[in-house]
Design a protein that fits this description.
It is built from eleven helices and five strands, in the order αβαβαβαβαβαααααα. 52% of the residues lie in helices and 12% in strands.
């Protein structure tokens, strides 16, 4: 499959220096704005302009290995959602921030489901992008309260999350590591257990909290901006 191919292509790439953010943008004037906003806070930008007339091709974009990707777009379309999903597959340790002209439940919920933890409008980005990048890079979440509350409310309304269940000390430790966006392999290394055992604990937590993904679980415990 295409996503698996992309993941293999980027596994051997050298990571960019700490503090580097990769900006994917569609309008040329956006780059200058982000450079001013982020450089003042000490961030370095590697930029890639997206050709909206063509299907996005991550291999041709030659993306760097960075901690945070920012995708700036006029409209959050299905093509943008697919692009972000491919970035997550190709760079599983990265975090993503999506910036759009308007945000709605229709555009935000699919991004939350695939693991995006940063979501801003263009106006919000002008004021908060540096803080959002720092928060997301640390494993936190930065998104409009109303959209995130609606998303979690939708989960609760489906009776996926009703109460906090009783969890063991080990499960609580794994949960804390999940909140830091640690992979199963990293959790196994931290706790000196096998990767399969780490995966077992993660699966138990998903079942106990009645959620379907690690992202849903992380968002339940992330601080809102």
């Amino acid at each position: 499959m295409r996503i698996n191919t992309i993941a293999k292509v980027h596994q051997s790439k050298t990571a960019a220096p700490l503090g580097t953010v990769c900006l994917l943008y569609t309008h040329p004037l956006v780059l200058e704005d982000y450079q001013k906003l982020l450089s003042a806070s000490g961030f370095r930008i590697e930029a890639r302009q997206l050709d909206t007339s063509l299907a996005f091709d991550l291999e041709k974009l030659d993306l760097p290995v960075v901690q945070v990707f920012i995708v700036d777009t006029l409209a959050i379309t299905e093509a943008i959602q697919l692009l972000v999903a491919e970035i997550r597959a190709g760079f599983p340790k990265s975090r993503q921030i999506v910036v759009g002209a308007k945000l709605s439940a229709e555009s935000a919920f699919p991004l939350f489901r695939i693991g995006v933890t940063g979501l801003l409008t263009h106006d919000q980005a002008h004021r908060y992008i540096s803080r959002a990048v720092s928060r997301v890079a640390e494993g936190g979440c930065w998104a409009p309260r109303n959209l995130l509350a609606s998303y979690l409310g939708a989960i609760a309304n489906k009776q996926l999350v009703k109460t906090v269940p009783n969890i063991t000390h080990r499960e609580r430790t794994v949960l804390e590591l999940l909140k830091l966006n640690r992979s199963n392999r990293e959790i196994a290394y931290d706790l000196k257990i096998s990767e399969s055992t780490a995966k077992f604990y993660v699966s138990k937590l998903l079942a106990k909290f009645k959620v379907q993904s690690r992202t849903d679980l992380i968002m339940l415990f992330s601080n809102l901006p």
